[in-house]
Amino acid sequence: LQSNTIDIAISDMTISEDRAKSVDFSKPYYIAGNGLVVNIDNTNINSFKDLEGKRIGVSIGSTGAEIASKIPNADVRQFNLIVDAFLELQNRGVDVVINDTPVNEYYVNNKGKGIAKVT
Q1: Taking Cα atoms as reference points, which of 107, 112, 117, 98 lies closest to residue 40?
Q2: How far apart are CA 13 and CA 113, in angstroms?
Q3: 32-61 pLDDT per residue, tens
Q4: CATH 3.40.395.10 for the 32-118 domain, yes or no
Q5: Calpha distance 64→57 (Å, rounded)
Q6: CA dist 78 to 26, 29, 41, 59, 81, Å?
Q7: What's the predicted TM-score (pTM) here?
Q8: Cβ atoms 91, 115 nearer than 8 A
């Protein structure tokens, strides 16, 4: 959006005061909330409280990235596309993905079915 390669961004761009200085935001059309996705065999991560020191996958500029940046000793890995973060989770390059809850639910019920779970 800021490089003028697109005219509008519809999702996966978190509204912040800093961003509002350079782009115009509409009123939020949907409030999704954030959640966690882990590999199906993971039993160590059950909530945000369990993320200290973990390898976390997020989408660049997302609310998940903002949340992850505040987790002590976390190794935060940012991806251009959330599908890349999910792939990294599947390949065990990250321990958890923080992302919008509806997208997480869609992933674990489709491409991630039998591989990943929402926790």
Answers
A1: 117
A2: 26
A3: 889 999 999 999 999 999 999 999 999 998
A4: no
A5: 9
A6: 25, 25, 23, 5, 9
A7: 0.82
A8: no
